[in-house]
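Q: Could you fold this chain for me?
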Amino acid sequence: MFIDARKLPRDSRLTADLAIIGAGPAGITLARSMIGGPTRVCLLEAGGTALDGPTQALYEGKNVGIEYPLAGSRLRYFGGSSNHWGGFCRTLHPIDLEQRDWLPDSGWPFGFDELQRYYEAARVIVEVSPARCSDRVYWQEKTGEHLREMPSGRMDLAFIQFSPPTRFGQRYGDELKAAANIDVLLNANVTNIGVTQDGQSVQRLDIAALNGLRHRVDAKAFVLATGGLENPRLLLLSNDVLPAGLGNRHDLVGRYFMEHPHLSGLGEVVVPDIDRLPKVYWRSLPVDGRDAGASFVPSDAFLRQNRLLNIQFTLSYRSGYRKGEASGNPDIGAKHLDMLAASSKLTGRGNPVNEDWLGAWLGLGCACEQAPNPDSRVMLADEQDVLGLRKICLDWRLTETDRHSMVRHLENLAMEIGALGTGRM
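A: Sure. Below is the predicted structure, expressed as structure tokens.
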């Protein structure tokens, strides 16, 4: 059942066995797993079922480190940030979870085998084909292309699958609405996680709606599923019993804020004969009903030998170039794509590409692993939002380790592309 907190009687008190704060992908997935069971669930969402300006503004805050889109990167309504997700899916690598002696504070509390148990269920939820992100034989069969081994062994291929993308609120909302044991509480902003006087257990959630109403949710167990920025903010705000914030006895809540920094426009790859480069390297192709593409990642051996962070590079078509004309002109790029589509290089029919065309320019993008850094952190600003809560203050920092890894990987990719004999970076 869907309940609007703005329409409840003032000071309503709801009860549940399990209260889940946040109806994004994590919260919705957990609530769905409880449908039809004995557990009475209350799934709390700060927004409604559509984007709303005043609610979205509650994500605004202050940057004191690297500029970060605090409101633009997240959506505060049912389905959360899946509502603008691009659908990019790829499994992690085992080394990503390991404790690495060259990377202080690295290592997860479980290994890749434990995580891998959940990939099949996850791929069904996000609606992609089986997660075979490193299975070269599978991708050769599905794309019909010969995918060469990387010449030097310094890099590997990892394959990306694209979800439709799954909008969790739209895709799974009707299931939750019809579930007899699930209450979805909309427009319900959690303002405080209430703990017992000894600070040892949580007993309630204090709720505020933007129309001024206040409510309370009591439960036996609680899950915080509001993301890497709002989770620590809410824990720090919950300081009526524990002045430093909930769970913050060791001053770790909000520390080690990490992203996977995205860089675009950092380089281009010049390919004289794009037919020598498998299409899946530079454009998405349909595989089992979903789009997929390839990315370039460093081999484990290269990472260990050079003591580097992980990274992923992708190529994308930007423009063609030909005699006497600039490559950056979008009209030239469109003409080149039309020429390719009409040639045997893409369709197996027609005439070869006109000899006036000298090749193609491919854009280069990447997503990087970030080194754990306790000084990169979520804090509270002095300024308050319309609910009277202190806004988020983010001090996002990168380190020399991050910069060194990026430069080293760029050099490595350039050598690998040259060794393939397909182009230059």
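A (continued): The first strand starts at residue 2 and ends at 4.
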